[in-house]
């Protein structure tokens, strides 16, 4: 076997693979732009949900104000969480990282995550008051399909924790 | 100024017609902001709420069925947007509920000095606004629709999604609370 | 008529909602009850003093302009949006390119006997074995190919597994992990599906 030629093949392969590098790390980018994207996503979610559940005008008049309000609250929480995450990365990069500061940020991030989940529960409570039994069932299916659709559109490998 | 019938504007807006929706805004903006102002109790919040009501209506107009009353639907969005806003504010500030046993002077405020009749009337108007702003949210919503917007109990009930009897009782209860709270100022302004 | 009932009727009367015949009975009660007469006067004065302030000059034009700008932002101009090349597809193409290039390269670099045309196709095993050895000698390449194979297996997974994996998107941390480009790609895809955006 020609070792030099194999090395050449390996280098060629590495070059090709380099052109298709791994998915970029999450970038903060422009916060206002990101907030606008999240808002647009929320609007699209509402449109699709309205259609999937066949909401009546009475139901939209009741639900849209609540859902819009909750989404604003979530956006604020997500923004704060993003800032804390950035600070946490900075702290962890120090030599050595400050334990107190790390724990403070970890606590804040966990709280934000809990608060965001509570907002989702608030949405479900609002929906519970307004939706018919069939619509409640459709909502579950719609939510799962919507989230799966997001995963597909990303094109990431669908994995649980440890997603990169 | 677009003088088309409302049903035509609404149908156009449902299809994405922004100009038609802009005309609907022009026709209803004063009433929507009026509801928001009465519910929020201050102009700054009312302005934001009114904007939010129309943005919500724009997003949701696709679900609106022609043949229904557009203004009833729009008022409903206005009330629900305001109630959602007040709920959030209440959670944030942990506000004490309206004390229906309260009578006499507004807590924390000094009694007004002996005034001329004109000042007493102005004072009464200001106190009425404060007292209405302190009503429980659902009473305030009924008050805003019936007194400010001139809706009948039946029309207000359609907006609020409750019975006409419920609106009637809320108005009665709201007035009882207001009368109790405003008694000193009503005495002051008596001719 | 009791005072409690009379006061309720006074409230209904102010709103034009008194039932037929109720006015007569109310007036009869008020003729004899000073307290209820005073109560009605108080309510009438509260009603008269209740008015919303007028908006200042120029307010509505500014209100409409602000709303128009926000509505325009809700319906962004239809522009062509580049959908980022999906990571998984990238890896699939990368793996395919690896195999094809490796195949050709090896065909040319490996010594081979004088061809006797006994078969129309290059035997698959002859190609694969040297590739496997080349990959095994490069841990990073091996890891990347492993992950791509895993992704391909998952793509064939039953729906339930996909649902469960998709639910990770319900975790708030998931959204933090997305780049702006990825978020934009999701929005664009949803706009296309909903017919609310997309390329002109």
* Category from helices, strands and their pairing of chain B: mainly alpha
- Intertermini distance of chain B: 46 Å
Rg from Cα of chain C = 39 Å
Mean pLDDT of chain C: 75
Report the average pLDDT across residues of chain B. 85
Q: Which ranges of chain B are low-confidence, i.e. pLDDT below 50, for 5 or more consecutive residues?
A: 99-115
Helicity level of chain C, as a percent range? 55-70%
CATH topological fold name of the largest domain in chain B: Rna Polymerase Sigma Factor, Chain: A
Shape of chain C: rod-shaped
Query: Could you say what the CATH architecture of the largest domain in chain B is?
Result: Orthogonal Bundle
Number of domains of chain C: 2
Helix count from the secondary structure assignment of chain C: 10
Q: Low-confidence segments of chain C, ≥5 residues, pLDDT <50?
A: 77-88
The biggest sheet of chain B amounts to:
none
Helicity of chain B, in percent?
over 70%
For the secondary structure, the number of strands of chain C is: 0
H/E element order of chain B: HHHHHHHH
Number of domains of chain B: 2
Which two chains have the most extensive interface, and how many residues on each?
Answer: A-C, 61 and 61 residues
Oligomer status: heterotrimer
Structural class computed from helices and strand pairing of chain C: mainly alpha
